[in-house]
């Protein structure tokens, strides 16, 4: 990112440090059931989790463990659940500009340019048109898409489209950014590069991020904590602290050791459920 | 390494944007022209084959002149009718009927289609009746409509409107209901109001099916026009057809057919152009 863009983003939030004190999320006793062919299926069973302001939490688990479901509940896209979800003292009762979300598919509007797509995120933001324009430009720069502002989604590569989606998720300056397997559909090189970029953006923005993934390396590389979920019904099986200093290197011995430990937990969870093969990486 | 590859790709595209764009778009335009020319050539094959057969056939008297007049005669009649203003009068009245009927029918179709596409409730209540009405062709409504409305202009407008209404309503409701849920969710995360959702997500997403409906609607409006003018009119292109047949003026019949075909083709192209304009993002750039 250019220095000018960084300055623009800073100027827009003079109280960035104050904002950093927010973004606390409390999930208490959340259960969620779907009805399949008339029979209720438990997707989440009594999940409780507290996320600190500015923390990076990775929700890790095999397909069907309910991690994406949990993220949708936090986002406010699904209000049909038991338990409570509270962000910064306010109960989540629907979607909010305080919570940005990046989906697995970029979900850009195909009829709008990158700039228009990001600007649409600000439609209901209580700031002036000039500030909106500045914010859009700053976030295009933040994700490294300068020069592509006027491109349409079908002209972008998968990685570029996902960058645009990240910019769109951040443009409202939410206190919490939710990421639902955002790099799952990308090739390995692009994925690695975007993981590094996300780490940089997180450090720069100082906001809380919750990342859903089934990629152990990704979870360990990015997370302050890795929350391992087990399936049927979806529940928290174990929480790992990742003490490694940032910025991190993938080859860090501590990270590699932790990665193996997380993998063992996943295999153990899988072994308890005969229907699930350990290390299964199929998409949810 | 990935960085290097990406940077190369980025700088290549930037270079394109800076220097090569004009040449690039020039090349693309030339390619588009060639494609265009090829398509036109294919279009002309059918007339190129049938026209000589028609000319030779009518010269040699394969069919009686009363049944298949010579192309030269048809052309002559066309010129005559153009010069006398007779053709313009018939075309004018028919165009007016189609435009009025289409405007009423398509307008109502858009409104009902949007209501059915947006609201489960409206759809549940209205669709059975709508489907039943849609299944009865516009032509079959004419006898009843005649008794109710007489054989004046109202009858024609109503029958044409009905013909345009059905495909427009059907495609609009399907198009709106099928806007991807994933994109609607994005709108929800931005806290879009219902109006914003309509303006920024639903309508842009439903443009292709809505236009398919409008084009079908216009075609059906033309068909209905000819039918209703055949039955109850003393002017217009449909009337020209009936009158020409009764008088055994097959050249007049052919002129009317050709004019109907040309106008229908032109109006469909016009709608296609409007649609392309609304969907520039599909073709813009590479």
TrEMBL record, chain A:
Domain of life assignment: Bacteria
Gene Ontology molecular function: ATP binding
Keyword Coiled coil: no
Domain spans labelled ABC transporter: 25-252
InterPro entries noted in UniProt: AAA+_ATPase, ABC_transporter-like_ATP-bd, ABC_transporter-like_CS, ABC_transporter_ATP-bind, P-loop_NTPase
UniProtKB keywords: ATP-binding, Nucleotide-binding, Transport
Any single Pfam family the record assigns to this protein: ABC_tran
Function according to Swiss-Prot or TrEMBL: Involved in beta-(1-->2)glucan export. Transmembrane domains (TMD) form a pore in the inner membrane and the ATP-binding domain (NBD) is responsible for energy generation.
Family: Belongs to the ABC transporter superfamily.
Protein name: ABC transporter ATP-binding protein
Lineage of the species this protein comes from: Bacteria, Pseudomonadati, Pseudomonadota, Alphaproteobacteria, Hyphomicrobiales
TrEMBL record, chain B:
Gene3D superfamilies xrefs: MetI-like (1.10.3720.10)
Intracellular or extracellular location(s): Cell membrane
Annotated ranges, domain ABC transmembrane type-1: 87-271
Membrane-spanning residues: 39-57, 95-117, 129-151, 222-241, 248-267
Alphabetical UniProt keywords: Cell membrane, Membrane, Transmembrane, Transmembrane helix, Transport
SUPFAM superfamilies membership: MetI-like
Membrane topology summary: Multi-pass membrane protein
Principal subcellular localization: membrane
Statement: the UniProt record of this protein carries the keyword Glycoprotein: no
Domain of life: Bacteria
The family this protein is said to belong to: Belongs to the binding-protein-dependent transport system permease family.
Protein name: ABC transporter permease
Species whose genome carries this gene: Bradyrhizobium denitrificans
Upper classification of the organism: Bacteria, Pseudomonadati, Pseudomonadota, Alphaproteobacteria, Hyphomicrobiales
């Amino acid at each position: 990112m250019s220095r000018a863009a960084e300055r623009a983003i800073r100027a827009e939030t003079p109280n960035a440090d104050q904002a950093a004190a927010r973004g606390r999320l409390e999930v208490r006793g959340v259960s969620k059931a779907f009805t399949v062919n008339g029979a209720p299926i438990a997707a989440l069973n009594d999940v409780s989790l507290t996320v600190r302001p500015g923390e990076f939490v990775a929700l890790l688990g095999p397909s069907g463990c309910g991690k994406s479901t949990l993220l949708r509940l936090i986002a406010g896209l699904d209000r049909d659940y038991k338990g409570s979800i509270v962000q910064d003292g306010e109960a989540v009762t629907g979607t909010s500009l305080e919570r940005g979300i990046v989906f697995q598919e970029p979900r850009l509007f195909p009829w709008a340019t990158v700039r228009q797509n990001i600007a649409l995120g600000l439609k209901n933001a209580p700031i002036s048109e000039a500030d909106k324009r500045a914010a859009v430009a700053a976030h295009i720069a933040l994700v490294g898409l300068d020069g592509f502002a006027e491109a349409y989604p079908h002209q972008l590569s998968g990685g570029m489209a996902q960058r645009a989606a990240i910019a769109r998720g951040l443009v409202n300056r939410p206190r919490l950014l939710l990421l639902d397997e955002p790099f799952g559909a990308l090739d390995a090189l692009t994925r690695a590069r975007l993981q590094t970029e996300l780490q940089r953006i997180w450090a720069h923005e100082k906001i809380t991020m919750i990342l859903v993934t089934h990629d152990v390396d990704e979870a360990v590389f990015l997370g302050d904590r890795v929350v391992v979920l087990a399936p049927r019904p979806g529940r928290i099986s174990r929480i790992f602290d990742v003490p490694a200093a940032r910025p991190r290197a993938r080859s860090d011995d501590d990270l590699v050791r932790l990665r193996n430990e997380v993998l063992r937990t996943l295999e153990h969870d899988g072994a308890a459920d005969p229907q699930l093969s350990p290390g299964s990486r199929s998409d949810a | 390494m990935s960085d290097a590859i990406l940077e190369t790709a980025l700088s290549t595209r930037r270079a394109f944007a800076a220097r090569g764009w004009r040449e690039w778009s020039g090349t693309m335009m030339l390619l588009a022209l060639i494609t265009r020319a090829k398509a036109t050539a294919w279009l002309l094959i059918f007339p190129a084959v049938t026209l000589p057969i028609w000319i030779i056939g009518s010269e040699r008297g394969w069919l009686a002149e009363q049944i298949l007049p010579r192309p030269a005669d048809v052309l002559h009649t066309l010129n005559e009718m153009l010069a006398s203003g007779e053709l313009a009068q018939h075309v004018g009245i028919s165009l007016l009927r189609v435009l009025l009927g289409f405007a009423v029918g398509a307008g109502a179709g858009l409104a009902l289609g949007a209501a059915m596409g947006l609201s489960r409730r409206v759809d549940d209540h209205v669709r059975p009746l709508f489907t039943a009405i849609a299944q009865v062709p516009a032509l079959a409504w004419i006898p009843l409509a005649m008794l109710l409305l007489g054989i004046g202009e109202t009858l024609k407008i109503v029958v044409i409107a009905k013909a345009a209404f059905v495909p427009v309503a059907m495609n609009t409701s399907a198009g709106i209901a099928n806007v991807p849920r994933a994109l609607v969710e994005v709108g929800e995360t931005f806290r879009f109001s219902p109006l914003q959702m309509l303006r920024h997500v639903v309508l842009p997403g439903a443009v292709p099916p809505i236009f398919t409906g409008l084009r079908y609607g216009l075609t059906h409006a033309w068909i209905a026009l000819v039918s209703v003018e055949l039955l109850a009119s003393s002017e217009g292109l449909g009337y020209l057809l009936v009158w020409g047949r009764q008088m055994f003026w097959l050249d007049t019949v052919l002129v009317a057919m050709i004019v109907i075909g040309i106008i229908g083709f032109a109006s469909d192209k016009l709608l296609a152009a409007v649609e392309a304009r609304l969907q520039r993002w599909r073709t813009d750039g590479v």
